[in-house]
Amino acid sequence: MSKNFEKVKRFYDAKLWPLSWVVNAVDKWITAAEYQEITGKEYEKE
Fold first, then answer.
1. To the nearest 5 percent, what fractions of the chain are helix, strand and coil?
2. pTM
3. Is 37 helix (H, G, I), strand (E, B) or coil?
4. DSSP for residue 25
């Protein structure tokens, strides 16, 4: 698990971060698999 996974999940679940911010965190703070775990959506690179 990435160092910042819990932080990103907590912020997203509390609606402090929009989905776009979680997308931006992939590769910087979390993995694509963690993105899917947090959001329930498959990560698609832009």
1. 50, 5, 45
2. 0.90
3. helix
4. H
